[in-house]
Amino acid sequence: MTKRTNGNFILLRNVSFVVSVYRPEFCELLWRSVNPSRFITSSVRRISMATQNRPKVYVTRRVPEIGLQILSPHCEISQWQSDDPVARHELLKNVSGKDALFCLLTDKIDKEVLEQAGPSLRVIGTMSVGYEHIDLEECKRRNISVGFTPDVLTNATAELTVALLLATSRRLKEGIQAVADGSWGTWKPSWLCGSGLDGSTVGIVGLGRIGLAVAKRLSPFGVSKFLYYGRTEKETAKDIGAEFVSFDSLLEKSDFVLGCCSLTEDNKELFNKTAFQKMKKTAVFINTSRGGLVNQTDLYAALSTGQIAAAGLDVTSPEPLPIDNPLLTLHNCVILPHIGSATEKARSAMSEVTAKNILSFLKGQDMPSKLI
Ligand code: DGY
To answer: Which positions fall inside the D-isomer specific 2-hydroxyacid dehydrogenase NAD-binding domain (predicted)?
Structure first.
């Protein structure tokens, strides 16, 4: 059967998927014909997909339609029908007895949820690239696979990072405010002067997919040097001529410091008083990763005392940021409501990949984007 791993096989697998969307009853037949050996190894689950006992999936939010279109011919879907997060007690109630969970970054998937789901839960698809909301160790222990959505939101998030950097460094918040409140007097030589990217040094903490995509977008602005820091040196750094440096060195030398890494136990509040003290007084700090990367009390102190020049945040802790948070009083702090991936294209693709991760697992196939 291994001889079937040629072009024909791949074509048939694709056909199988297309057919299955419209005529799910054909899917099993086709699958058996192209891959009988895999059929045997996980026949129980696929048999159940072809009969009335279709796998049960719980979707924790209203999500772009494509994800539901992919799942609905094969699965019994129940869904939290709201744009707001599912309440904890509803999540606990509805996850019970499900085979799969389609969740979002706002759903805390911990031991209690997994316990409540029970042994039927085999796969979780999170519609996010971040996964710190899921207890992966507990999932491993229970042999639950987890899929996520890298790649498809890289461009959107990189674009937003650049937008936030420009808005912050060129003081757009103050400019827009001045136009609206009438304090725009006349053209003045030194009014609202910020710092430009031309000739600057940009330091990126976390040169992963998004960090690299940001650097590629910033390069044409005339950046003279890219520095990066992370757990390991990256082969891809050569694409932008970036230099691997220590965290301290990055802080000391960069005009722009960008947080693009994923949040882990090790880097919680990496950007704290000590870090801000090492940065240039003219430095601009941008975070589009996770709010937990920053000690916000220390950031407020750094911004309000002139320790650093400005900050742009697309992520905060908590989210939403309470409207009485002192950071919101600062003219040199631009805060966006976690919209890094908010393009129609990226969000649709995230829903699609999440559904495909779940469906592939249920069919006994490899997930397109598997985390564990
Ligand atoms: C993610 O998917 O983790 C992003 O933060 C969403 O924008």
So the answer is: 162-340
